[in-house]
Amino acid sequence: MLSDTDLGAIWLTLRLATTVTLLLLVLGTPLALWLARTRSIFKGPVSALVALPLVLPPTVLGFYLLIFMGPSGPMGKFTEALGLGTLPFTFWGLVVASLLYSLPFVVQPIQNAIEAQGPRPGEVAATLRSGPWDSFWHVTLPLAKPGLLTAAVLGFAHTVGEFGVVLMIGGNIPGETRVVSVQIYDHVEALEYTQAHWLSAAMIVFSFAVLLLLYLLQQRKSAVGLRYGS
Amino acid sequence: MDHNRDPTPGIQGHFHLPRSNGDQQGAFTLDAKLDLPGTGVTGIFGPSGSGKTTLLRCIAGLQSCKNASLSVNGETWQCSSKRVFIPVHRRPLGFVFQQPSLFAHLSAGKNLEFARKRAGEAVSDSDFQKIIELMGIGDLLSRGPESLSGGEQQRVAIARALLIKPRLLLMDEPLASLDQMRKREILPYLEKMHRAFDIPILYVSHSVDEIARLADYLLLMEEGKVIGEGKAAALLSREDFPAQLGDDLGVLLEAKIAERDDQWKLLRAGFEGGALWLRDGGEPIGESIRLRVLARDISLTRSEDTASSILNRLPVRVQEISPDRDPAMVLVRLKPLSDEGNENTSGSTRLIARITRRSLHQLSLVAGSELWAQIKSVAIVR
Amino acid sequence: MRIGFRCCHGFIRRQTELLSLTPLALLLGTFAMLTTLSARGDETTIAVASNFTAPMQAMVNQFEAQSAHRVKVAFGSSGKFFAQINHGAPFDAFFSADAEKPARLIAQGLAEKTSLRTYAEGKLVLWSRRDGFVDDQGLVLKSGQFHKLALANPKLAPYGAAAIEVLQHLKLAQSTRSQWVQGENISQTYQFVASGNADLGLIALSQVMRDGKITEGSAWLVPDSFYGPIRQDAVILKRGRENPALLAFWLFVKSPAAQATIRRYGYNTGASSGPLKATEGGDTDAE
Asked: C-alpha B16: how far from its chain's center?
């Protein structure tokens, strides 16, 4: 069944996906808000940049990240200047890569949710003496909750399933960068199909359980709404 | 802009907003100068697309306007020449939107709390209760907005706007999205509100009924410009009151309850030049009321038709016949015969009938013809 | 109902057959057309491990310059080719990056047993992209004066297994373990080093050698005795055994000219390292 190495990879993957999801919600929400509201000429270019990981093969992204975060890359120089060393082959390197890679999956649902609100709730809030910050927290965000939930699920799932990028910058270090998807790949490549099956099955069951839980939560939310109606 | 330095009661200002593609109203340049009373209800009236809503949004600060000034009862809210612009959320105003716009994620009660927490001054529990009772929404508080009818939602929205303790209440066609039934349901609440709170209200509408019922003062708009203003009663009864009102064209009659007929549950209201029978709505004898008679509700007969079910018939003389914007119709201005000795007064008791050209021809009406006006319905507007 | 079911069944089966046959039929059709058009040469399609891309391209150019036959080459991961061949991929021969997969294909009856031969032997090099970082004795490994050491995953890549052997030979496997970063394959391992993310790495000589010279950085050519041979074996697959184009190319790969090319790209060949396995002889029989 699952070996210690497999369990280690699972634990690492969960840690990575949770970290990335939380960071993405924090960073992606203001970005989504800006994209949903701005009329700036930069909206197009920024949207395209955010969506880029959707169309780029992960290995391309991974390759450029390897160079970008490496000792000759701008980010590598920056992190070395801070005394942090370089990011490839580290957990936080994977976090940075996953942030970029999963960004569109988090930004777009939130952006859609905010765009779907239209300007009205914000205007109403303003006429109720609610300043921009207040109205962001108490109106825009709560109204965008389904979008945030979708974003969290997609961001988490996508990070768990991420493979190509990790392959490029991970270095297969146990407890640091050896995530489940790489572990499964190793099993398959080494023709260890039984282990691959067990780990894959565990992944599927886990992912299904997480998604199911979230959908159930969402459903109960709407059921509350219906109860109000009766 | 002297009025910005010198505290003057009332609402003064000007807005010049060139048309732009991004503007939803789009088709006109808003160019409005305001000098409105600082109390009571001011109706902002005009056809759809005349700039009423844009003007109201400018006053609220929701629509940015580069060339503008505004002061409300001595407080400067906006003055582009002095680079003053108080953002919407710092203006002591309440705003009721055309579409009911309760926050969908909050129950009706939480929507009210949202406003109460942010009110300009503390809202005491008794004030809170008073507003809830006034709007008749005590039973709705635990419910979500989606489970309320449009009228209920709008009542909650009005209560919410009142709870912010505004010093100016802006209402943008608050009844326009509601059907006739709901309108009738809400209008009394608006009247009560008007009487209970001493808040100046700007009330945008394209419905003469609402304006006639609520407004003390009136601002008429067309294609982004103010084309007239004055006391509502006087303005509404003027015969040059904008003809684009079409179906809503009519006259306002200042009347007094003169007699109560308990057997038939009717009231007789007398006005200069005649009297009309109305359904008894409980008004006491001697009370002043405002009656509205729509042009489309008057039909004309050569002789008195006593076999008709129509209650109110007045002998009148044709004064003038003028074309309607509908080529099949004409407008006939009439003067009650009993008012004929009164030639020199303002002539406010004239009636207007809207009839087809064919009827005009069949009855061979000309100025001076004497005939009977049958009045199908009379509305008490206040 | 029953008729309908049978119809459906037949339809689906036809579809499936059609689907699986389409590429093959197309390919064969193309072959036939090319054959009739050129009327001189045949065509063959071979699967080649991607680490052997450069020498293979050079050899194919050499071959086609002197022959009417045409060779189409698919480059990719050996593991994927192995799986694809298992599922009927239309290759005439398979040049693997290891010895294990061709042997398994033979065991499964998908390849000609007698054709098995080692076409190249990989050589391991300790390389850094920085000049002078690696000395010509490889002492830098013992000094521990480096941050990260890249090597291929020993479980998956023969070069990785060989790298471990080298480290064990030097008794450095334990002391350097915390500095290892593993690439899933040897080309990824090269990227780690080439991008500077790893200071040095045990990679394939073929990755840094062009025309007999190491093109940049500093390197230590690990002695062959430090690790077992990294055999890259090739086999003729069932469907290629009667393809004249393939057989001609197969023969060419063994020619001195081709062997020289292979060596120029940093591999050992049977010719340079002496006669290898019995498969050499078997090979001759197959022809």
From this structure: 25
